[in-house]
Task: inverse folding
């Protein structure tokens, strides 16, 4: 079968379409013929050597939609020929609060979805939501699971609350924007890109500010017109973190799902305890979170925002698009195999 294989870290040119062995399912596993896959920043970080315990050669890709073509021993025959989406969270464990030591994400160390076929455990299969195209369904798994857990499981989002999403534009943030709006949340955004702020507002955000401007917090406070943020979902960290504490209301919540800007050089602990702000970390989610996310997507008829779709053989252009950080929504590969 054909697959996009990373042969050397810190060398994007080593991403090549090559022939590798067809993945035979073991007991409890299935083989899925992929119709579409989607990129995540995780894929780019692995290519650049910015991820833990990287092994090469490896087929990247955590997101995928396709059809079951073979089942292993002990797998229910009902899965044969079904259109499915794959939950990329492998071996979460029994504790819904936190992943176990053996937790992994599909697409490294196991071969991922940027290939003709992928093998996954039966427990990671879910029927594709009927209202979604293959490309839309492929855009959903990692971002949808991460965003749903951040907003609802960890963040406890309620109707009518003010929500701040930092760094709007990526797949997770774009899906959280859609999810929060669909439940009656009033969503505010930050970005360094004015066009992304305008795109978010056109998609239903109440407003947004450019965090590169010195007075960005005061600008947001002016837009809030005396109100404060009930829930912040932050993927950046960095020097703006203390400003996020200031705009969070007393008794508010902050959910942290990334640190792309690194650690803040200082932390205003007095604001945290005096305002009684709850700070909660999050990452991915368990099988129940994934199932609830899919049910939510179907109930609300949400269609993930697609930034661009590339044919499989144009994968390099897709990675370049990701590297440019200009996307709004997900970058998808269409698997145009016969």
Result:
């Amino acid at each position: 079968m054909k697959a996009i294989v990373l042969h050397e870290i810190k060398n994007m040119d080593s991403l090549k379409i090559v022939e590798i062995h067809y993945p035979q399912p073991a007991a409890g596993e299935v083989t899925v013929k992929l119709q579409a896959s989607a990129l995540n920043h995780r894929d780019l970080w692995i290519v650049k050597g910015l991820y833990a315990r990287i092994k090469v050669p490896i087929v990247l890709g955590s997101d995928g939609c396709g059809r079951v073509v073979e089942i292993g021993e002990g797998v229910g025959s009902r899965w044969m020929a079904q259109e499915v989406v794959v939950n990329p969270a492998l071996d979460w464990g029994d504790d819904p609060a936190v992943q176990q030591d053996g937790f992994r994400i599909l697409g490294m160390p196991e071969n991922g979805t940027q290939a003709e076929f992928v093998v996954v455990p039966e427990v990671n299969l879910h029927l594709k939501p009927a209202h979604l195209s293959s490309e839309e369904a492929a855009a959903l798994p990692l971002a949808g699971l991460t965003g749903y857990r951040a907003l609802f499981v960890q963040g406890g989002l309620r109707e009518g609350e003010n929500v701040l999403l930092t760094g709007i534009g990526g797949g997770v943030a774009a899906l959280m924007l859609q999810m929060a709006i669909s439940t009656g949340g009033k969503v505010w955004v930050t970005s360094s890109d004015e066009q992304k702020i305008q795109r978010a507002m056109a998609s239903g955000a109440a407003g947004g500010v450019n965090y590169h401007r010195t007075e960005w917090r005061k600008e947001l406070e002016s837009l809030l017109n005396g109100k404060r943020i009930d829930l912040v979902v932050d993927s950046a960290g960095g020097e703006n973190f203390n400003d996020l504490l200031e705009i969070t209301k007393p008794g508010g919540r902050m959910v942290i799902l990334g640190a792309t800007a690194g650690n803040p050089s200082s932390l205003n602990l007095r604001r945290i305890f005096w305002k009684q702000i709850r700070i909660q970390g999050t990452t991915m989610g368990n099988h129940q979170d994934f199932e609830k996310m899919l049910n939510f997507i179907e109930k609300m008829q949400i269609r993930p925002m697609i930034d661009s779709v590339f044919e499989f053989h144009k994968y390099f252009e897709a990675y370049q698009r990701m590297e440019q950080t200009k996307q709004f929504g997900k970058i998808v590969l269409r698997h145009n195999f016969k």
